[in-house]
Specification:
By secondary structure, this protein is of the alpha/beta class. It folds into three domains: 144 residues, 3-Layer(aba) Sandwich (Alpha-D-Glucose-1,6-Bisphosphate, Chain A, domain 3), CATH 3.40.120; 211 residues, 3-Layer(aba) Sandwich (Alpha-D-Glucose-1,6-Bisphosphate, Chain A, domain 3); 92 residues, Alpha-D-phosphohexomutase, C-terminal domain (TATA-Binding Protein, 2-Layer Sandwich). The chain is 38% helix and 22% strand. The chain has 14 helices and 20 strands. The strands form four sheets. A seven-stranded mixed beta sheet has the order 1-2-6-5-3-4-7, sandwiched between helices. Helix 1 runs parallel beside helix 2 and helix 13 packs across helix 14. The longest helix has 23 residues. The protein is globular and about 70 Å long. It binds magnesium ion. The site of magnesium ion has 6 residues, from loops.
């Protein structure tokens, strides 16, 4: 594991190597060391190591004097929602989201159900490093209660969303944390539900916990064969969703995000949409023509959530299928997003393929330039002025996460890889020709910078 324990999504690592029971106990003790954290919720996804880490984490929390509600297997967004709904001081989710089964992780939410940001994570990390835990006197050790509180979430959805049409759909939890709640909630909304891979299994034998065009090929075939209206698939902890349309085609993440963002502007009480620096410019194209505005953040759902709250945005999301609906709560929510998409199709009287059809399709290119780890961040930092000079028509410049230049016929994003000795270039162009031209210039600037700084 890197010297820093926490990344943008909490702690993530290989079980029994990076993420041990020892570390989980310490995280529990640390969370309870903050005196405001007296009432804490804990949940986990279906991973094999979930129960092991849950026991350790709960032990640490109890030792620190916190009372814990142990909620068992739940999707991350449900844990986040319950944290606010049940007026807990913190919620802790044991999950490695879409990572392979040998990984696990720990993600912490505050009393508002918003994931801990860098500052809060740094505070936790500092206590763990210095082992400055404050343990409770023996009479004040916390109490644990094992309970199922998922009904608060299902009832909330059923109360707030009504579907008029009897939709037929295949729900694919991929053996992850949405395995029982997703089919149950859709049935409760009057849908005809076929559940696939809907048993909990921490080995993820049916498909990878990361839903994408490749891993959902079997689902796409099934949707076509059974002739249902839509297929929905979630990642391991249910904060992401991916869609298959009625023709059995995987729906591009960027385009469906843009189409839903446009719908949210049309329907909502605001004009601002939040997404990250990697999302396609089709989001701007769809939102701006309706008089809306797109604000881009660093990659990571916590940054999107914080920006939504700060700007009172009507909707936000990342093009991995993590969508946030602030009218409900501030955690990306796969189940909720798939229900609200059906509601959108109903309101617009469209099939899923038609709903996305208006969104333009652009060309994306990606290149990596080798660069030593100790240099990569400096190369990106120092390239700003040269990049601005290389492109004659910079419409917008952002440096919240690497460098992102909006240009006449596309954009370029330059970031240092988080894990490898590489600088990553992402380009999107209105045409392949435009994208290639932008990429060529970008590569030239970065290569020169790497060469110069390597001397
Ligand atoms: Mg996830």
């Amino acid at each position: 594991m890197s010297p820093k324990l926490f990344g943008s999504s909490g702690i993530r690592g290989l079980v029994n190597l990076d993420l041990t029971t020892d570390l989980a106990v310490k995280i529990g003790m640390t969370i309870a060391t903050f005196s405001k954290n007296r009432k804490v919720l804990v949940a986990r996804d279906t991973r094999v190591s979930g129960l092991m880490l849950e026991n350790a984490l709960v032990s640490g929390l109890l030792a620190g004097g916190a009372d814990v509600k142990v909620l068992g297997i739940l999707p991350t967004p449900v844990l986040a929602y319950l944290t606010r709904c049940l007026e807990a001081d913190a919620g802790v989710m044991i999950t490695a989201s879409h990572n392979p089964p040998q990984y696990n992780g720990i993600k912490i939410f505050d009393e508002n159900g918003i994931a801990y940001n860098d500052e809060k994570q740094d505070e936790i990390e500092e206590i763990i490093r210095k082992e400055k835990f404050r343990l409770a006197d023996w009479q004040k050790i916390g109490e644990a209660e094992f309970c199922d509180k998922s009904g608060f979430y299902t009832e909330m959805i059923w109360e707030k969303v009504k579907l008029q049409k009897k939709w037929s759909l295949i729900v694919d939890p991929g053996c992850g944390a949405t395995y029982n709640l997703a089919p149950k909630i859709f049935k409760g909304l009057g849908c005809r539900v076929i559940a696939a891979n809907a048993h909990p299994d921490g080995f993820f034998p049916a498909r990878s916990p990361e839903p994408n065009a490749e891993t959902l090929k079997p689902l796409a075939k099934l949707v076509k064969r059974l002739g249902v209206d839509v297929g929905v698939a979630y990642d391991g902890d249910g904060d992401r969703v991916a869609f298959i349309d009625e023709c059995g085609e995987f729906v591009d993440f960027d385009r469906v995000l843009a189409a839903y963002a446009a719908y949210a502007i049309k329907k909502g009480k605001g004009k601002t949409i939040i997404t990250n620096v990697e999302a396609s410019m089709c989001v701007e194209k769809m939102v701006e023509k309706l008089g809306g505005k797109v604000v881009r953040t660093r990659v990571g759902d916590v940054y999107v959530a914080e920006e939504i709250k700060r700007r009172k945005a009507v909707f936000g999301g990342e093009p991995c299928g993590a969508w946030i609906h602030p009218q409900y709560h501030y955690c990306p929510d796969g189940i909720l997003s798939s229900i609200l998409l059906l509601k959108a199709l109903e309101n617009e009287n469209k099939k899923l393929s038609e709903f996305v059809a208006e969104t333009p399709r652009y060309t994306t290119l990606r290149e990596n330039i080798p660069c030593k780890n100790e240099l990569k961040h400096r190369v990106v930092e120092k390239a700003a002025e040269e990049l601005k000079a290389a492109f004659s028509s910079v419409k917008d410049f952002l440096d919240v996460d690497g460098l992102r230049l909006t240009l006449e016929e596309g954009w370029i994003l330059i970031r240092a890889s988080g894990t490898e000795p590489l600088v990553r270039l992402t380009v999107e162009g209105e045409s392949l020709k435009a994208a290639k031209k932008i990429m060529e210039k970008g590569i030239a600037v970065i290569r020169t910078a790497v060469e110069r700084m390597s001397k």
